Amino acid sequence: MPLTLTRPDLQRTANFIAGEWCSTDGRTLDVTDPATGALIAQVPDSGAEAARAAADAAHAAFPAWRRTPAKQRAQILKRWNDLVLAHQDDLGRLISREQGKPLAEGIGEVAYAASYIEWFAEEATRANGDVIPAPVPGRRMFAIREPVGVVAAITPWNFPAAMIARKIAPALAAGCTVVCKPAEDTPLTSLALVALAAQAGVPAGVLNIVTASRERTPEVVDVWLDDARVRKITFTGSTPVGKHLARRSADTLKKLSLELGGNAPFIVFEDADLHAAVDGLMAAKFRNGGQTCVCPNRVFVHEAVHDEFAELLAARVSALRVGPASDPSSQIGPMINARAIEKIERHVQDAVARGARVLTGGARLPALGPNYFAPTVLVNADATMACACEETFGPVVPLTRFADEAEVVAQANDTPFGLAAYFYSRDVRRIWRVADALEAGIVGINEGALAAEAAPFGGVKDSGYGREGSVHGLDDYLHTKYVCQGQLD
């Protein structure tokens, strides 16, 4: 099944700055198919010049965009949402082609991305302020919410449509203008979304996008970090990079939203519905081949049900169909690149060397291509293993036995990260004890699929700060101005 587009002009291969598609200094970046390594397209490998031009355009467009009535901004976003949904199949094909996830997942991601555009289109008209009761006669006091200004959005490769929508939609809804740098592995989906935003009527300069390789990304981002006109950075990616952005933002005191690494625990208590727990783990762990920041990374199973759970899980995992997105039966696609495969393999080998046992999978699948890894279940995992300390970011489930609630909660919290956590139990008293005790920004109780546009998404500790989605997601693109008028008597 070829992943060809019914609307070929959606595959854009230039930067979009000040309403124009433009090239840069002639350097290019190859975009390749992770399933085969074949070249898909070449996009600009931009540097400081393009980054400055994008910031100039966003700064120039900001005064008019912030004065655009909220209802009008909402109407533009709604048109963007309609165009995204109208081109859902093509956008899904682009995602699957450059990111590798099965086509059904790619098309599903487009619907998920559109849900954020629609949500923030509606929230644009609800950025209400407050009238404050005055402490003295003859005075009126107000708190007004205003856009922060130019926003720099830096997005990851694992959800190239959803992540850009989750950042750009609230920024535009709030009245901010945007400069964006998509991930070097998956720029085509982001460029297509920007093309549809322009078609929807987003004015020139309000939304700008610049592509760059890993090597030149610091050159692009440093321009925005040093530019005092850029008032906010929103970033999804690794914790070390997030900390670097926080340090470099200090000189200009930018507002930051950082959605960083995770090390999510998944706890199965002895009173859990095991079949439901397996269903939840499959949904949470194997979406996008395990390449999500909220994937369960450490799975703790009570010793009384461990063996039964492991058997049920291994049967489900071994039945997963691995293959390219061009095969409609594929459930797990290739990993994004060679670095990802090497990390997954290193984690499995380290776990086995330290006493873990492979129930299913555990190896590459070279017959399919260079970037495939078999979905894997390990037993006898423990906290000494690399897979317990680092995000594997792949289709590997390590199972650890536990005997005591307090013990497993302590183990779950024994990480610098705190993005997501999951647990399964039918004891209502335990449910609230454990939900309160887990140190995470997102907690799933008897549920493996957590994300929704109406819910706040973000972490604590080294998983960052700020929230995306929900009413809280709009707040991150606004600041509050206090206005006091006197002499009214």
What does this structure look like?
- This is Succinate-semialdehyde dehydrogenase [NADP(+)] GabD.
- InterPro entries: Ald_DH/histidinol_DH, Ald_DH_C, Ald_DH_CS_CYS, Ald_DH_CS_GLU, Ald_DH_N, Aldehyde_DH_dom, Aldehyde_DH_Superfamily, Succ_semiAld_DH.
- It is an enzyme of class 1 (oxidoreductase).
- By secondary structure, this protein is α/β, with parallel strands linked by helices.
- It has 15 helices and 22 strands.
- The strands form six sheets. A seven-stranded mixed β-sheet has the order 14-15-16-13-12-18-19, with helices on both faces. A six-stranded mixed β-sheet has the order 9-8-7-10-11-21, sandwiched between helices. The chain has a three-stranded antiparallel β-sheet with strand order 5-6-22, with no helix packed on it.
- β3 (28-32) and β4 (39-44) form a beta hairpin.
- α2 (70-86) crosses α6 and α3 packs across α4 (103-123).
- The protein is globular, with a radius of gyration of 23 Å.
- It starts with 14 loop residues before the first strand and ends with a strand.
- The model has no long low-confidence stretch (mean pLDDT 97).
Strand order of the largest sheet: 14-15-16-13-12-18-19
Question: How many structural domains can be distinguished in the coordinates?
Answer: 2
- How does the overall form come out from the CA principal axes? globular
Strand content: 15-25%
- In round numbers, the mean pLDDT is 97
Q: Could you please say which CATH topology of the largest domain applies here? A: Aldehyde Dehydrogenase, Chain A, domain 1
Distance between the ends: 75 Å
CATH superfamily name of the largest domain? Aldehyde Dehydrogenase, Chain A, domain 1
CATH class of the largest domain: Alpha Beta
CATH architecture of the largest domain: 3-Layer(aba) Sandwich
What does the radius of gyration come to?
23 Å
Unreliable runs: none
Major sheet summary line: 7 strands, mixed
Class by SSE composition: alpha/beta
**Percent helix:** 25-40%
Quantity of strands, as a count: 22
Number of helices: 15
Family: Belongs to the aldehyde dehydrogenase family.
Enzyme class: oxidoreductase
Active site: 259
Keywords: Oxidoreductase
